[in-house]
Amino acid sequence: MNPALAQVLERGDIRRGDAFAVAPAPTLASGFARLDAELPGGGWPRGALTELLAEHEGIGELGLLLPALAALTAAGQTVVLIAPPRAAHAPAWAAAGIRLEALRLVLPRRPRDALWAAVETLRCGGVAATLLWLDELFRRQLPANSLRRLQVAAGEGGGAAFCFRPAQLAAAASSAPLRLQLQPAGRQLRVQLLKRRGPPARQAILLDIARPADFSPRVSHVVAGAVLPDAADSRRRTRVAA
Fold it and tell me: Mutual orientation of helices 111-123 and 146-157 as an angle, nearest 10°?
């Protein structure tokens, strides 16, 4: 190999196409050894956006994140849910190992408020992980450059960021450095890595996912959270970690 080329390849900001990139920030173990082996840095990226493209709701997409979220909340770190399609049923989340006092809900009243809340929450250094469901509010079509804004905000805050989107958008362009397509496979979850900072994944992964009986609310026992009524209000509403 040309000595000058070899010297360039030794730089930390240069990546070969057949190798994983050096993780720019610490990662968060997913709790699934087979998945971590396929993720650059050995876990979910912090300070970057991860897209989870599920075939439909309730196939185990939340179960894929539960081990990591449980570890974060056990350490007293804050996890924020923004515009979830269903209210969080407290007993189910607690049974999954989530400390409820570390869980926050943000329930915007309008689509533009949801995107604003997502950007501001991702910028917040006190939030360890943010889960976003925005497409349903925007009728599955986010405004142009929205994902880029979310990716930049995640880099500013440094927490893990997960955006749930429909599987029909798998072929769409995205600023997220990590994209996973999720499909049910009997009692397992089929995970296809569509995009990562490294060589293309050769095959899908089958994971045994714990599926709590019910994440939807019953008559009561809904996790308390914050409602952001209007993006024009003071930025103090973004202090969800307080």
Answer: 30
- CA–CA separation, 195 vs 171, rounded Å? 11
β-bridge pairing 48-54 and 160-166: parallel
Are 211 and 57 in contact by the 8 Å Cβ rule? The answer is: no
Q: What phi, psi does 158 have (nearest 5°)?
A: 85, 0
The Cα–Cα gap between 236 and 208 comes to 41
Domains of the chain, first to last: 26-236 (3.40.50.300)
Tell me the pLDDT tens digit for each residue of 127-156. Answer: 999 999 998 888 777 888 999 999 999 999
pTM: 0.81
* Distance in angstroms (rounded) separating the CA atoms of residues 45 and 103: 20
